[in-house]
């Protein structure tokens, strides 16, 4: 058991625990916080679920093995993790050419995958915005996340969301407005592309 | 309508989520309100950013356990390396590559002949939660060869097979009063089918008492129904040893 609950620790504090006896709890918490982003960005870059899974495995093992190279004074954990993800994804992207799998009919996740005609560096560079948007969505509270998911990803109207969730229409509208404010704030924060490319 | 009434609707408007009459009202207001136009522009920037969002998908649930298993295995491997350095033993074969290898890191090769060190490592395996509680799908009796049996007292041994979500098979060896390997030797578990073999990894035994070892084999091993434990020597010969110590057949 961790001396301090993993939930209460910042990403940077969890990183310092990856070399000690609390390694599993610390890595597990970082995985909970970031695996969806790594996987989602991986799907977007690689367009292949199996490779995206490989990416998640490689990235989190690299986080553990390379935790000593992380320096919080040079940037946030999120930016460092993005760089690790980008590097691993580039390697896997190159492998993809040799083992592309057919996209299953109607797979909604792969429908958004990048056009493979773009070069690897080009595709990976575009991933910084994907990463930041994913992180901004991940840190929304549950009710805000729900309205954005239903309104943007499922394309429901405010009235349909109200009917689907049982939440009054006025509340749905105010949650949508608040969620956009939170997203705007989150997207304005954080490290710049220059820092991400460093 | 006043700005205060329009503002809460702007995000929904940008998403196209308002009813037609509400949207028409917002449009009428926007036509004559620079403040709300600017607000809408900022909201549109956020909406545009959402187009870059990755698909809302999560990795499979078993992936986390696999990663943590690797961390445990590598942790043990590092302890093993330290143990090896301290005992100045010579290990046969290649060292673990830094990259991800599904099976390499799960091999537990303990070349030390120091029983105490092995006991320590096995105990650490237990501490790390290595020993699973879920029921095996197959339990295989491991029978000593006649030569081997002559020197064993109170021996029993089993291999318990547990399929993993990834398709791999986890093998938990439990050997009681099985002898230690000779100096500069270790045991290796093989899945055998005719002339073909797949190694599940290597280990040593504590001798007196119970040895527990956790190993892993790839999915192809499902079709290999014979288990052999051979005694391997730390030399440059990479071919499997013919010195079979224990044998078992899938039920």
What would you note in describing this structure?
The complex is a heterodimer of chains A (198) and B (251). Chain A is 66% helix and 0% strand. By secondary structure, chain A is mainly alpha-helical. Residues 98-117 of chain A have low confidence and may be disordered. With 251 residues, chain B is α+β, with helices and mostly antiparallel strands. Chain B has two domains: 3-50, no CATH class; 62-249, no CATH class. Chain B is built from six helices and nine strands. Chain B has helices at residues 3-14, 20-31, 34-50, 62-87, 115-127, 146-150, and strands at residues 138-141, 143-144, 156-163, 169-178, 185-193, 196-203, 207-217, 226-233, 244-249. Chain B starts with a helix and ends with a strand. Residues 88-133 of chain B have low confidence and may be disordered. Chains A and B meet through helix 2, helix 3, helix 6, helix 7 and helix 8 of A and helix 1, helix 3 and helix 4 of B.
Blueprint (SSEs and pairs):
The complex is a heterodimer of chains A (about 200) and B (about 250).
Chain A: H1 11-16, H2 23-46, H3 49-65, H4 77-96, H5 120-125, H6 127-138, H7 142-153, H8 158-165, H9 169-188, H10 193-197
Helix pairs in contact in A: 2-3, 2-4, 2-6, 3-4, 6-9, 7-9, 8-9
Chain B: H1 3-14, H2 20-31, H3 34-50, H4 62-87, H5 115-127, E1 138-141, E2 143-144, H6 146-150, E3 156-163, E4 169-178, E5 185-193, E6 196-203, E7 207-217, E8 226-233, E9 244-249
Antiparallel strand pairs in B: 1-3, 2-9, 3-4, 4-7, 5-6, 5-8, 8-9
Helix pairs in contact in B: 1-3, 4-5
